[in-house]
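Please annotate the following for my students:
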Amino acid sequence: MKSLSLAEILVVIGGIGFFLVGSYFAFNIFLKVDKDLNQKVTAMYLGVEGAEIVRQIRDTSFLQDEEFDQEFLGKFDKPLVPVRSGETWDLIDSSANPSLQKVYLTNEGFLQRSDTSPPPSWKETQFRRWIKITHVSADEIKVQIFVAYGSKIYSFIEDHLYDWR
């Protein structure tokens, strides 16, 4: 009967170890890419939601027969935070307090606060969101939505809204 030498056993153990270490590093890379993609997709959805909130505010002005940019007067070129008040939305200036840009995870989804003390059930995320509205002309505004995760800005959406009446 032929037995394996010490050198052969070490080569087999080395091969198995090389395979296990390679698998470990490949799995770590996969997890990092998955986390990064998850953050980017969430940032994209937060940006799109920000654009929809501004459209909803504009459309509410239309329904109340106000000027289309009535709700945005005094808020141009400032970092704004969308805050829900009952069934409606408002845009709060966050230039004096950038911590208002924090996004919290709640039972209702992602929300932001008009103050810095959220309810205990709200979980703080690493996301920050702010909106900048620029007055382009009498019947056009430019809306820019920024979403950051940590120090990286993951999402930037620009939209132009018009007075279509």
Summary: The chain is about 35% helix and 35% strand.
